[in-house]
Every structure is written in structure tokens, then in C-alpha cells.
Amino acid sequence: MRIQSVTFTKISILLVLGLCLSSCTVLQWRSSDQEIKEKFEESYVNADISYFKVDSLNLKVRIQAVTEPDNSINLIFFHGSPSSLSAWDAYALDSTLREKANIYAIDRPGYGYSDFGNEMTSIQLQAQIMSALIKQKELKNVLTIGSSYGGPLAARIGYLNENVKAIVMISPAIDPENENDIWASRFTRWKLTRWLVPTSYRVAGDEKKVHAQELALIKDDWVKMTIPVYHLHDDKDDIVPYQNIEFTKKNFPNHKIVSFPERGHEIAWKNPDLIIPYLVELINSLLVKNTN
């Protein structure tokens, strides 16, 4: 009887923990439209929220835009896994960037409020959707910026869309032969534990499972790209191996490698002060090019 009681107690604790984790707002990595607007209003910045509809996929992609009528450069940010467009708040609120460019942040499919919980593991399909978004909004002089999983996506959009003039990949998982198998992601694959994992982490796990295969499908196209590609990476990244920079060196003809010491994988949102100067550098370069 005591054994049954202890077992029942453990199962009960596991059930409660699972329910708490799966419903925890913080672990879902997303903010509502209203929460975003209120946060930006506190800084006297107007954030416009819209949705790009893809009827054939029954999908709506959420877009946050901070724009100025006179800006001709457009920055589009793509988050990693798990995350949402809110990962880029520091960039959208940065006065230097706002003075020089329009700033767009996207909830990738399956995250935030873009069909939350329904994964889209194809990098090619995500890139096609984002390229169509750029076309629909008639955006020119585009710089795509992506962190972690968003890095290859940003690059693929640059391959597909001629209006993309430069790419910034931050801690990108770009090398199909150097994919780091994160032990914790296995919880999202096992039937016994999958239900315990918060929705955004399940989506991330599903992407992770086939990420190397997805990268392999598009790797031969990188050498055809001539636009600038910046690869920013920490030398002690414990999530995406630093060796990914070697792949960029070999496969992107017009690349620039920037290494940071001992900042970790999360430099995109923990250290925006390190990233923003390189965005400004590219913006200024593009502005000069457009005036010549």
C-alpha cells in the first residue's frame, strides 16, 4: 500500500508540474498584441501589428512594424527556437536604428501568434512565405537578420528575393554537418514526456529533429549569393557550435565573420549593444550605395 501511495504521489506531482509548464506564459515566449502596444507606448514608440495571410496554408503570420515615412531601408528580424518577435524589442526601440531604418519583427510559423503550436519545419517553405510577405508589402532595400534557427532563414530569403541587399546571421545553425544534438530536446520527441513540454518548446524540438536535413537541401545554393553576409558568433557558444563559421567562410563568397569572446549563444537579445553597430554599418553602406 505504501508503494502504491508513493507512486501515486510521484505521478500526481508529475501531472501538476506538466500542467504548470505547458500553460506557463513565460515559457511560451510570446506577448499579445495589446501587451506589445502598451510596452512600446511606454517608450513613446508606435508599434503597428498586422497579419500576413497565407490562405493556401490556413496561416496568419504576425508582423510588428516600427516605421518612419522617410526611411528607405527596411530591417526584418527573424527569431530562433523557441522565441517570438518580442526577442527583438531592444532593436525596435533603439533610437539609432529607428532613425535610419524601418524595423519589422516576425513571429515565425508555430511561434508567438503565427499559428502557435503548429510547426513548419521546412526552411524553404518559411523562406518562400517571408519572401511573399516582402513582395506584398513592396519593401525595397531589405536587410534580413536572423538569430540561431532564424539565421539560415534570413539567408535563404536573401537567396530567393532580389530586394534583400544584405544578411546578418547571429549565432546561426547553418552547417548541416555540425548540428549540435541538445539532450533536452529529446523530451519533445518522446510520447511519455512530450505532453509535459510547453508548446513553443515542442515546436522547437520538431524543428530541431529535421534541421540538419533541411540545411542539407539548400546548402549548395549559398555559393551563388553575392550580397554581403555577416556572421556574428560567440567563441564559447554552447548551443550552436562556433565551428559553424567555417561553413560560412567556405560557402558564402561575400562574407564577414565577427567573433565575440565568452558571451554565449544568446548574444542577439542579451547583448544588442554588440550587434547594433554592425547593422548600422550595413545600413550606412547601403545608403551610400543608393546615393551613388
Automatic annotation (TrEMBL):
Signal peptide: none annotated. Transmembrane segments: none annotated. One of its GO terms (molecular function) is hydrolase activity. The keyword Hydrolase applies. One of its GO terms (cellular component) is membrane. Keywords: Hydrolase. The keyword Glycoprotein does not apply. Coiled coil: none annotated. InterPro entries: AB_hydrolase_1, AB_hydrolase_fold, AB_hydrolase_sf. Residues 75-190 form the AB hydrolase-1 domain. This is Alpha/beta hydrolase. It comes from Nonlabens dokdonensis.
